[in-house]
Amino acid sequence: MEPVPTVHFFPSFLLQFSFGFFPQMYQRKWGRIFTALGVFTFLRLPYLSGLPMVGSYQLVGLFFGSILGIWTREVILVLLGRNETALPKQSEQILTDWMIRNPTGKSNLPIWYSTYFGFIIFLFFLVMLCLFQYQGLGLVSGLGIQEYLYFPSLSSREAMGLSCKILIPTAFVVLYLFSEERSMPTPSKDSLSEQLRFGIFLGFGINLLVICIQSVWSLEFFSEGTLESVKVGRTTGLLQDSGSASWILPILSLLWISKLISIWRQSKERFSLVLAILSFLFVTWLGLKQGKAFWVIWIICNAVGVIHLTTDLWIVSITKKRIIRIGSYFLLPLFFFLILYGLSFLKKDWDLVELSKRSMEAISVWKTEPYLALKRMDLVRAELLTICTEGIKNNLWLGNGIGSFPLGLLDPLRVGTRTSNGMIDFPPNFYLWLIHDLGIFGTFVFLFYIGVFLWERGLWKQSLLLIIPLFFGVQIQNSDGAFLCFYLILLGEKGSGFSPSFDKLRKTIWFSPLLLILSVGLPLNYALFYSGKFWDLGIGSEFRKTQLGEYQSAVTIPPRSPNYEYEFHGKVWEWKLSEFGPSRAGRILLETKSKSLVVEILFLNSDRVIIKQELFTETNQGYIWSGECPKGASYIRLKSRSRLEFRLPRSSFDGNNRIQF
Fold it and tell me: Which of 186, 459, 609, 649 counts the highest number of beta carbons within 10 A?
């Protein structure tokens, strides 16, 4: 959706694609490890290669390669009859070894009974709703994506691109995990969760090394693409930015330390305990150059973990254990306050000290002026919170659409609060994003799937790790965050095992059909209700005319100095004809270096019925047509056999964007 030169896009895409595709073709195990490793190391590969802009595509190549590798491998295995015939003879040793490494995957359930099926249907509907909301119903005039000016300085393709920043990471991660589970042998001889976790921890270790070098040597080491993070003195590793590092670093550290503690408790091996303590101290040191999200997550989660561990080790009685834990939870706020109060007196340039000072300033006015307290804590988040609540009030039940928040900040006609620094961002936390973009109904549908996933797998304990990080941002907007979030919800520590209660209901004759009906019916109803707002947008050149006050010019690039020419890309364009008589006769010159076998002009009446059709003539400058509009013509439509990139002067359109000759 974002215009990036192919010479910049393909090198990164092909490298990512190869990193995902070929390991998957070689063996299921290494495919998972390489994919998980790539998620936490390849995200800013385009920036590190010195190719700007391509980073916005994130990990499309990696996930596309992995998904295609999985299904290509499984199709070949089925075609070779892996489960129906004996293995090839020793003379075909390479093929035999490959089949042994990759036993054919089987699933006990039809694909439409899979929990993933409904979630993918929901994501598909969200994509279609965005397509119609930002591209309009002008799609009916020809195949391909039509381009309009969604705002005077923003094309509909760029508007759609804002939605894709969340849709692409979410959709590709869900499709990848679905493909892995669908192709997994049943019963499984290899653990999907453990192999992904190995790749995650491997990538995490590389990030720790890079963060360590950035902390000791230079913040600019492997920091291309995160200049704002570097400016405020924060380390990022190879993650998207300091916002991602500030929550991914503590969460993965907690997973690693909890794994070591679990090994120590089972085997009483002191090395694991010592390594866990050293890991805690090392990550705490690295956190000195992380944002405030790191310290909130790190301190709260470790405090809760220490309470649970010590009570498990020293208290036998379950009743006493629960009482002490509950009492400790009530004392935690006081404990945190004392820590912040003490740190606020330090004269250090650390984010933790800055957080402590801001907290003390905010607490002093919290009772009388809560909003002022929030502004003292974080001015940008306070403004984004206000803007988000205004958007929620406008569309409480159905929401404003995926990716609509940054688009609203760019709206020149928007009435309401604006950011003081002109920052374009997503809502300040995940929960507000759900309500703002999906509304109450859409949030219910989204949480319905998440709830079924957690119930099905019995992994709700792992998902608790996300509760605090989701207060600090829309953590699924980047591919690294989306992968970690869905890994914790869908796989976590125990793999894809079902909970006993869900498995019992799954085997009943009525449960699976009921789940299928809800999985398809809920997103379908949401899409139908939400699409009601599209009917007054208009089609073709009248798309959003009531909102913009003018007809659409279907332009790709708005006119700029010094030539002030419109630039058009595509195969089909439609314009409203000027109603002024002398402006309906003359010529149209398409200045272009592109070539097409046929370029034609169609005249349509008010009902968009073709009343005349003629061909353009090719010239040295491009293509030209001259003549007079037939009586009754209200629109003209240009069609090209192949893709064209041409220019028209601004004088070809009147003040309402109607074409004139």
Answer: 459
Domain edges within the chain: 1-104, 109-189+400-535, 550-652
Contact between 149 and 553 (Cβ < 8 Å): yes
Q: Are 553 and 138 in contact (CB under 8 A)?
A: no
- Give the phi and the psi of residue 582 in degrees, each rounded to 5: -60, -20
H-state helical runs in 268-291: 270-286
Q: Looking up tokens 């919290």, which residue turns up?
A: 366
126, 403 Cβ separation under 8 angstroms: no
What is the share, in percent, of the chain residues with pLDDT greater than 70?
Answer: 91
Chain segment 615-657, per-residue pLDDT in tens: 999 998 899 999 999 999 999 999 998 988 999 998 899 889 9
What pLDDT, in 10s, does the model give residues 120-140?
999 999 999 998 888 886 655
Q: Is the pLDDT of residue 495 over 50?
A: no
Helix (H) or strand (E) holding 588: strand 585-591
Task: Say if residue 141's pLDDT is above 60.
Answer: no
Which pair of tokens denotes residue 50?
Answer: 């010195």
The phi, psi pair for 514, rounded to 5°, reads -65, -45
Residue with tokens 């249907």, as numbered in its chain: 121
- Give 636's strand partners: 575, 603
CB contact at 8 A, 516 and 113: yes
- Answer whether 433's CB lies under 8 Å from 426's CB: yes
Say how far residue 134 (Cα) sits from the centre of its chain: 18
- CA angle 457-310-291, nearest 5°? 70
Distance of CA 4 to the CA centre of its chain: 19
CA distances from 530 to 128, 335, 567, 568 (A): 11, 47, 33, 31
**Helix, strand, or coil here: 254?**
helix
- What is the CATH topology of the domain spanning 550-652? Jelly Rolls (2.60.120)
